[in-house]
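Hello forum,

I keep getting stuck at the same step: I have a sequence, I want structure tokens, and every attempt I make locally crashes halfway through. Rather than fight my setup again tonight, could one of you with a working pipeline run this one for me? It's a single chain of 317 residues.
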Amino acid sequence: MSRGAPPLRYTLRQLEYFVAVGEAGSIARAAQRINVSSPSISTAIAQLEQEFGLPLFVRQHAQGLSLTQAGREMLDQARVVLREAGALRDIAGDISGKVRGPLSVGCLLTFAQLVLPAMRRGFEERFPEVRVRQQELNQVELFSALRRSEIDLALTYDLDLPADLQFTPLLHLPPIALMAAGHPLADCQSVSIDQLKDHPMVLLDLPLSADYFLSFFEAIHARPLIAERTRDMAVMRSMVANDFGYSIVNVRPLSDVSPDGNPVRAVPIEGPVRAMRMGFLTAQDADRSSAVRAFIENGIGLVRDGKLRRIGGLPLV
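Reply #2:
Ran it on my machine without issues. Output:
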């Protein structure tokens, strides 16, 4: 009787490292993303290449690593293997009543610093067997990361959501105008877009978000006086505080002081302006994961207990 091919000897952890490098394009970036040392990742990749008998990456000294053709095919299959392994883990967790395993959470970078650390801390204290890692991304990047299974769920706004992703709302967030303490409208109880249109604006210029803010002016057939643009929330607040112009946000700052120490005023915007909803975004089949379900339920609990209302939203759950 002839013997079959020798069994492959590799671990899910090695596949996880391989996928991280394939997505990041370098061992250093992958190490930072998954919080593992570069030598450990390098060793895992070398062991996989030896086990499979083929190169997975082309080493380019100045440009990091590029997947070979074989590496691209192996990357797709490695993602499938990791998803199926996760499904097995979730079944075991459901049977045993335990929530465990890795969980990758993405968050919209405009409010990640206000929400995600506290949400993670409470969740990890309740479920210590879950290993959470996080990424701060813009809206378009979150959509892409969910579709490529780079993250398991995202905390974001209901802004131009694709039909193939599922949204669970948490908070209702009306728009707010931020302005310097000496701004002519700073002492108003509320302001309208018509009042704002004749004043200089600092636009938070992120994908989809900028279109949302500008739509307020389009609705009244007006154009804002955009004096400055920035993609950084902290830079925007400091520019506002230094009277380069007002800006529009949906999350109320926890402090009335900008990062450079100058005062900022937050004034509600009145009139027919669309509020945002903050919530969880997942792939359609993400509820198979006990860790994803538990993270969403934990977030809903925080809202119900009033622990997220400090960011200026009204609960929807």
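The CA atoms of residues 5 and 81 lie 20 Å apart. If your local run keeps crashing, start a new thread with the error log.
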